[in-house]
Amino acid sequence: MIELTLFYIIAVPAVLIVGISKGGFGSGLGVLAVPAMSLVVSPLQAVGVMLPILCLMDLVGVWNYRHSWDKANMKIMAPAAVVGIVVGTLLFDYMNEQTIRLLIGTIALVFALDHWIGKRKAEPAGVSVLKGGFWSAVSGFASFVAHAGGPPMSVYLLPQRMDRAIFVGTTVVFFTAVNYAKLVPYWWLGQLEAGNLLTSLVLMPLAPVGVWLGIWLRDKISPTVFYETCYVFLAIVGTKLIWDGWFL
Q1: What is the CA angle 100-43-3, rounded to 5?
Q2: What is the pTM of this model?
Q3: Share of the chain above pLDDT 90, in %
Q4: Do residues 143 and 47 make contact, with C-beta atoms less than 8 angstroms apart?
Q5: pLDDT tens-digit map of 181-196
Q6: Which residues make Cβ contacts (< 8 Å) with residue 137, sequence separation at least 6?
Q7: Over the stretch 158-177, which tens digit does the pLDDT of each residue have?
Q8: How far apart are CA 5 and CA 10, in angstroms?
Q9: How far apart are alpha carbons 182 and 125 in whole angstroms?
Q10: Where are the beta strands (DSSP E) in the chain?
Q11: Minimal CA–CA distance to 204: which of 147, 196, 190?
Protein backbone atom coordinates (compact mmCIF):
# COMPACT_ATOMS: atom_id res chain seq x y z
CA MET A 1 0.00 0.00 0.00
CA ILE A 2 1.18 3.50 -0.83
CA GLU A 3 2.00 5.39 2.41
CA LEU A 4 3.49 8.62 1.02
CA THR A 5 1.63 11.64 2.41
CA LEU A 6 2.36 13.64 -0.74
CA PHE A 7 0.64 10.97 -2.84
CA TYR A 8 -2.64 11.42 -0.95
CA ILE A 9 -2.35 15.21 -1.02
CA ILE A 10 -2.35 14.89 -4.80
CA ALA A 11 -4.60 11.84 -5.16
CA VAL A 12 -7.58 13.07 -3.11
CA PRO A 13 -8.35 16.16 -5.25
CA ALA A 14 -7.42 14.23 -8.41
CA VAL A 15 -9.95 11.47 -7.67
CA LEU A 16 -12.63 14.05 -6.82
CA ILE A 17 -12.00 15.88 -10.10
CA VAL A 18 -12.29 12.61 -12.04
CA GLY A 19 -15.59 11.88 -10.27
CA ILE A 20 -16.90 15.38 -10.93
CA SER A 21 -15.94 14.96 -14.58
CA LYS A 22 -17.75 11.63 -14.79
CA GLY A 23 -20.80 13.28 -13.26
CA GLY A 24 -20.95 15.61 -16.24
CA PHE A 25 -19.28 18.78 -14.95
CA GLY A 26 -16.10 19.45 -16.89
CA SER A 27 -16.51 16.25 -18.86
CA GLY A 28 -13.24 14.83 -20.19
CA LEU A 29 -11.02 16.03 -17.36
CA GLY A 30 -10.67 12.51 -15.99
CA VAL A 31 -7.34 12.51 -17.81
CA LEU A 32 -5.98 14.51 -14.87
CA ALA A 33 -5.64 11.71 -12.32
CA VAL A 34 -2.85 9.51 -13.67
CA PRO A 35 -0.57 12.41 -14.75
CA ALA A 36 -1.00 13.98 -11.31
CA MET A 37 -0.33 10.74 -9.40
CA SER A 38 2.62 9.99 -11.69
CA LEU A 39 4.43 12.97 -10.22
CA VAL A 40 4.83 10.93 -7.02
CA VAL A 41 4.59 7.22 -7.93
CA SER A 42 5.20 5.07 -10.99
CA PRO A 43 2.68 5.57 -13.82
CA LEU A 44 2.16 1.80 -13.80
CA GLN A 45 1.17 1.93 -10.14
CA ALA A 46 -1.02 4.98 -10.70
CA VAL A 47 -3.11 3.26 -13.39
CA GLY A 48 -3.42 0.14 -11.23
CA VAL A 49 -4.69 2.17 -8.27
CA MET A 50 -7.19 4.14 -10.36
CA LEU A 51 -8.93 1.29 -12.20
CA PRO A 52 -11.05 -0.07 -9.29
CA ILE A 53 -11.98 3.51 -8.35
CA LEU A 54 -13.05 4.23 -11.93
CA CYS A 55 -15.14 1.05 -12.01
CA LEU A 56 -17.07 2.20 -8.93
CA MET A 57 -17.55 5.68 -10.40
CA ASP A 58 -18.88 4.10 -13.57
CA LEU A 59 -21.58 2.20 -11.68
CA VAL A 60 -22.80 5.43 -10.09
CA GLY A 61 -22.63 7.26 -13.42
CA VAL A 62 -24.43 4.56 -15.43
CA TRP A 63 -27.31 4.53 -12.94
CA ASN A 64 -27.77 8.29 -13.28
CA TYR A 65 -27.46 8.35 -17.08
CA ARG A 66 -29.08 4.98 -17.84
CA HIS A 67 -31.73 6.61 -20.06
CA SER A 68 -29.44 9.19 -21.72
CA TRP A 69 -26.92 7.72 -24.15
CA ASP A 70 -26.52 7.30 -27.90
CA LYS A 71 -26.94 3.67 -28.98
CA ALA A 72 -25.87 4.26 -32.61
CA ASN A 73 -22.50 5.61 -31.50
CA MET A 74 -22.00 2.89 -28.90
CA LYS A 75 -22.42 0.14 -31.51
CA ILE A 76 -19.36 1.59 -33.26
CA MET A 77 -17.32 2.73 -30.28
CA ALA A 78 -17.40 -0.24 -27.90
CA PRO A 79 -16.02 -2.93 -30.27
CA ALA A 80 -13.32 -0.55 -31.54
CA ALA A 81 -12.25 0.25 -27.99
CA VAL A 82 -11.73 -3.45 -27.28
CA VAL A 83 -9.28 -3.53 -30.21
CA GLY A 84 -7.34 -0.67 -28.59
CA ILE A 85 -7.29 -2.49 -25.24
CA VAL A 86 -5.93 -5.65 -26.90
CA VAL A 87 -3.19 -3.62 -28.61
CA GLY A 88 -2.30 -2.00 -25.27
CA THR A 89 -2.09 -5.41 -23.61
CA LEU A 90 0.18 -6.80 -26.31
CA LEU A 91 2.51 -3.77 -26.18
CA PHE A 92 2.58 -3.55 -22.38
CA ASP A 93 5.95 -5.29 -21.95
CA TYR A 94 7.57 -2.98 -24.51
CA MET A 95 6.64 0.27 -22.75
CA ASN A 96 8.99 1.33 -19.95
CA GLU A 97 8.17 4.00 -17.38
CA GLN A 98 9.90 6.76 -19.35
CA THR A 99 7.90 5.93 -22.46
CA ILE A 100 4.67 5.91 -20.48
CA ARG A 101 5.50 9.25 -18.84
CA LEU A 102 6.12 10.75 -22.28
CA LEU A 103 2.88 9.29 -23.63
CA ILE A 104 0.78 10.44 -20.68
CA GLY A 105 2.41 13.88 -20.66
CA THR A 106 1.86 14.34 -24.39
CA ILE A 107 -1.81 13.33 -24.13
CA ALA A 108 -2.32 15.76 -21.24
CA LEU A 109 -0.53 18.68 -22.91
CA VAL A 110 -2.16 18.18 -26.32
CA PHE A 111 -5.59 17.98 -24.69
CA ALA A 112 -5.00 21.28 -22.88
CA LEU A 113 -3.64 23.01 -25.99
CA ASP A 114 -6.55 21.73 -28.06
CA HIS A 115 -8.94 23.31 -25.57
CA TRP A 116 -7.27 26.70 -25.97
CA ILE A 117 -6.49 26.80 -29.69
CA GLY A 118 -8.48 23.99 -31.28
CA LYS A 119 -11.03 24.80 -33.96
CA ARG A 120 -14.48 23.23 -34.22
CA LYS A 121 -16.53 22.73 -37.37
CA ALA A 122 -19.43 25.12 -37.95
CA GLU A 123 -21.89 22.31 -38.68
CA PRO A 124 -22.51 19.38 -36.32
CA ALA A 125 -20.87 16.15 -37.48
CA GLY A 126 -22.77 12.88 -37.82
CA VAL A 127 -22.18 9.31 -36.69
CA SER A 128 -19.26 7.79 -38.62
CA VAL A 129 -18.09 4.17 -38.63
CA LEU A 130 -14.62 5.15 -39.88
CA LYS A 131 -13.98 8.09 -37.54
CA GLY A 132 -15.79 6.50 -34.62
CA GLY A 133 -13.90 3.24 -35.04
CA PHE A 134 -10.50 4.91 -35.31
CA TRP A 135 -10.86 7.35 -32.40
CA SER A 136 -12.52 4.76 -30.18
CA ALA A 137 -9.64 2.33 -30.78
CA VAL A 138 -7.19 5.11 -29.88
CA SER A 139 -9.33 5.87 -26.84
CA GLY A 140 -9.28 2.21 -25.76
CA PHE A 141 -5.49 2.12 -26.09
CA ALA A 142 -4.96 5.42 -24.23
CA SER A 143 -7.40 4.31 -21.55
CA PHE A 144 -5.55 1.03 -21.10
CA VAL A 145 -2.16 2.75 -20.83
CA ALA A 146 -3.09 5.78 -18.73
CA HIS A 147 -6.89 5.97 -18.20
CA ALA A 148 -6.60 8.82 -20.70
CA GLY A 149 -9.21 7.77 -23.24
CA GLY A 150 -11.24 10.96 -22.84
CA PRO A 151 -9.34 13.20 -25.30
CA PRO A 152 -9.50 10.89 -28.36
CA MET A 153 -13.11 9.99 -27.56
CA SER A 154 -13.93 13.71 -27.37
CA VAL A 155 -12.32 14.29 -30.78
CA TYR A 156 -15.05 12.06 -32.22
CA LEU A 157 -18.08 12.92 -30.06
CA LEU A 158 -17.76 16.67 -29.42
CA PRO A 159 -18.15 17.74 -33.08
CA GLN A 160 -21.56 16.01 -33.11
CA ARG A 161 -22.83 18.67 -30.67
CA MET A 162 -25.37 16.32 -29.13
CA ASP A 163 -27.47 17.26 -26.14
CA ARG A 164 -25.22 17.62 -23.10
CA ALA A 165 -26.99 14.89 -21.12
CA ILE A 166 -26.75 12.49 -24.10
CA PHE A 167 -23.07 13.35 -24.56
CA VAL A 168 -22.25 12.74 -20.90
CA GLY A 169 -24.35 9.58 -20.79
CA THR A 170 -22.66 8.19 -23.90
CA THR A 171 -19.20 8.80 -22.45
CA VAL A 172 -20.24 7.23 -19.13
CA VAL A 173 -21.60 4.07 -20.79
CA PHE A 174 -18.58 3.88 -23.12
CA PHE A 175 -15.98 4.11 -20.35
CA THR A 176 -17.93 1.73 -18.16
CA ALA A 177 -17.56 -0.88 -20.89
CA VAL A 178 -13.90 0.04 -21.41
CA ASN A 179 -12.93 0.02 -17.73
CA TYR A 180 -14.58 -3.29 -16.93
CA ALA A 181 -12.99 -4.80 -20.04
CA LYS A 182 -9.59 -3.70 -18.68
CA LEU A 183 -9.99 -5.64 -15.42
CA VAL A 184 -8.92 -8.97 -16.92
CA PRO A 185 -5.71 -7.78 -18.65
CA TYR A 186 -4.81 -5.60 -15.65
CA TRP A 187 -5.15 -8.60 -13.34
CA TRP A 188 -3.17 -10.76 -15.78
CA LEU A 189 -0.37 -8.16 -15.95
CA GLY A 190 -0.18 -7.80 -12.16
CA GLN A 191 -1.59 -4.27 -11.97
CA LEU A 192 -4.22 -5.28 -9.42
CA GLU A 193 -1.82 -6.60 -6.77
CA ALA A 194 -2.68 -6.26 -3.07
CA GLY A 195 -0.82 -2.97 -2.43
CA ASN A 196 -2.58 -1.20 -5.28
CA LEU A 197 -5.97 -2.59 -4.27
CA LEU A 198 -5.51 -1.43 -0.65
CA THR A 199 -4.64 2.06 -1.86
CA SER A 200 -7.70 2.00 -4.13
CA LEU A 201 -9.84 0.99 -1.14
CA VAL A 202 -8.62 3.98 0.88
CA LEU A 203 -9.51 6.40 -1.94
CA MET A 204 -12.73 4.64 -3.02
CA PRO A 205 -15.17 6.56 -0.75
CA LEU A 206 -14.31 9.65 -2.80
CA ALA A 207 -15.64 8.00 -5.98
CA PRO A 208 -19.41 8.37 -5.48
CA VAL A 209 -18.89 11.74 -3.76
CA GLY A 210 -17.12 13.09 -6.84
CA VAL A 211 -19.72 11.76 -9.29
CA TRP A 212 -22.64 13.13 -7.28
CA LEU A 213 -20.86 16.48 -7.00
CA GLY A 214 -20.47 16.54 -10.78
CA ILE A 215 -24.16 15.80 -11.32
CA TRP A 216 -25.13 18.52 -8.82
CA LEU A 217 -22.69 21.10 -10.17
CA ARG A 218 -23.55 20.48 -13.82
CA ASP A 219 -26.80 22.47 -13.66
CA LYS A 220 -25.94 24.90 -10.87
CA ILE A 221 -22.57 26.53 -11.55
CA SER A 222 -20.93 27.84 -14.69
CA PRO A 223 -18.06 25.48 -15.52
CA THR A 224 -15.80 28.24 -16.93
CA VAL A 225 -13.56 28.79 -13.87
CA PHE A 226 -13.43 25.07 -13.12
CA TYR A 227 -12.49 24.25 -16.73
CA GLU A 228 -9.75 26.85 -17.01
CA THR A 229 -8.17 25.96 -13.67
CA CYS A 230 -8.07 22.27 -14.55
CA TYR A 231 -6.69 22.89 -18.03
CA VAL A 232 -3.88 25.06 -16.64
CA PHE A 233 -3.06 22.32 -14.13
CA LEU A 234 -3.25 19.72 -16.88
CA ALA A 235 -0.80 21.64 -19.08
CA ILE A 236 1.67 22.07 -16.21
CA VAL A 237 1.53 18.39 -15.26
CA GLY A 238 1.81 17.30 -18.91
CA THR A 239 4.87 19.51 -19.43
CA LYS A 240 6.49 18.17 -16.25
CA LEU A 241 5.96 14.54 -17.29
CA ILE A 242 7.34 15.17 -20.78
CA TRP A 243 10.42 16.76 -19.19
CA ASP A 244 10.84 13.78 -16.84
CA GLY A 245 10.36 11.33 -19.70
CA TRP A 246 13.10 12.96 -21.78
CA PHE A 247 15.67 14.00 -19.20
CA LEU A 248 15.33 11.82 -16.07
Answers
A1: 165
A2: 0.84
A3: 43
A4: no
A5: 999 999 999 999 999 9
A6: 80, 81, 83, 84, 87
A7: 788 888 788 889 999 999 99
A8: 9
A9: 30
A10: none
A11: 196
